[in-house]
Design goal:
Layout lengths: L17 E6 L5 E7 L9 H18 L11 E2 L2 E2 L2 E2 L1 E2 L17 H16 L1
Antiparallel strand pairs: 1-2, 3-4, 5-6
Length: 120
């Protein structure tokens, strides 16, 4: 196993990590590696859409417009999985909707509505 001993930490920025996961024949996930600087190059239209949406969600989480309340449990394609203790989503059997349901469009419409109300 190889790993960089020190990853730079700058309080004025954030870092995006890429996780390579393999699913076995029983659909059990296996973590292969974590990339501290994942490639954002898109090889297919689907790959492009995935990466653009992920970056859009990252900027939504950053909340430059200051429209979030801090009580959100889901923003775009991201789920809050811990807030002191693990977050339980009441609408599902799972403790998170991560990987089981993505209502990204609905979440972003809700954020857009909050922003337009705030600006009005």
């Amino acid at each position: 196993m190889s790993v960089q001993k020190v990853i730079m930490n700058d309080k004025h920025c954030f870092e995006l990590y890429g996780f390579d996961i393999l699913l076995d024949s029983n659909l059990k996930p296996w973590l292969i590696e974590v990339n501290s600087s994942p490639s954002m190059t898109a090889n297919t239209p689907q790959d492009f859409e995935l990466k653009v949406n992920m970056l859009d969600d990252c900027f939504s989480v950053l909340d430059h417009e200051k429209i979030l309340t801090g009580q959100e449990e889901q923003i775009g394609g991201f789920d809050l999985i811990c807030k002191g203790t693990p977050v339980k989503n009441e609408s599902t059997l799972f403790s998170t909707m991560l990987g089981s349901f993505n209502n990204r469009s609905q979440q972003l419409k809700k954020l857009a509505k909050m922003l337009s109300a705030k600006l009005a």
